[in-house]
Amino acid sequence: MDRQDVNVTTVIGADTIITGTIRAQGPVLIDGRVDGDICTDGLLMIGEAAVVVGNIYAGSVICRGMIVGDIVASEEVELLDSASLNGTVRTPVFLVDDGALLTDNVEAAYETEELSDDEDMSPIRAVA
Question: Minimal CA–CA distance to 34: which of 47, 79, 43, 25?
Fold first, then answer.
């Protein structure tokens, strides 16, 4: 997804430093530095020169910059080739381009649980 495809409602510019929690609705673009958590129900885009030191809670995250903190996304997380992440990712869909740096771990947001022990039937799986 490209910036031109999204109607961004919140922008943190390249020369801006924010200290504290950001709470927003809709798409957010970070090109500067944020020292604190970011919470949005929409798409969070982190630019190539951007730095986020804090946890991220979003619908989706597309990162080209640096994140030091954990990410929880209800839809997906994408680390592009210039991205660097030092933290845990919790999301149902996780995409990583060649060249992206990931330190720590990834957790599946939804784990399956078998509901049938009958060998003759294929197991029914539930999303937890």
Answer: 47
